[in-house]
Structures are given as structure tokens and as C-alpha cells.
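Dear support,

I submitted the protein below through the web form. The confirmation email said the job was done, but the results page showed an empty box. After a refresh the structure appeared. I'm attaching both so you can tell me whether what I see now is the final result or a partial one.
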Amino acid sequence: MMVANDSKKTVLIVDDSASLRQVVHIALANAGYEVVEAADGNEGLARLDGRRIHLIISDVNMPNMDGISFVKAVKQLPEYRFTPIIMLTTEAHEDKKIEGQMAGAKAWVVKPFQPEQVLRAVAKLILP
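What the results page shows now:
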């Protein structure tokens, strides 16, 4: 365990859009967060390797493993069961939101978004 890193909170971004990951990464890094990236749900699960993740931001529509399946999979992992998850997506349909909430997502941010919106949601939900 590196002591230098303990003060920083770590956020995992799971999105198949590299440009979107970059925008969110820059906003979070500028706000003082450590950022880990993954391109889809499978890669996201691979990043949950025992390291401390304080919050996850995930897209819904992704190849290989979509965001809802990813959230359900995260909730099966004892170490990450209580990690808050924010869905960042173009999906604005109420039924998708409900599906996401039932899977365990804590917040739903619709694209296009302002980085401030994401930062506010992160600040509200991130684990101490």
C-alpha cells in the first residue's frame, strides 16, 4: 500500500468512448481524484483487482459487457459491493434508469453533460 496515494480518492471510469473518458478523467484529475480507466464492463471488472476504488462512473451502452450487467457484476464482488456507481449515458429512458437503480446504480447523468455535473455527483456520493 502506497502511503502517498491514501489521501487521493480513486474513481474508475468505464466507457467505450476514449474521448469521453478523457473529458471525465481531466475533470476528475483537476479536482484532485486519482483516475483508473476501462473501455468496457469486462475491462472494468478486471480493474477491480483489490485496489481501493471510491466510486465508479460507467456508461450504459458498451460492447462486450453493457453498463447494467457491469453494475450487477460489481455488486456481486464483496470488496466493491458498496462502491457507489454513477451511470453516465445517453440513455434518458425512465425504464433504463429504473433498471440501473435496481442493479445498484446510485446516480444517473445524461450525456451531453457538463463536467461540473459529474463532479457534483461524485462529491455527493464518493466513499469517505
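Response: this is the final, complete result; the empty box was a page-load delay. Residues 10-125 form a domain with the Rossmann fold fold (CATH 3.40.50.2300).
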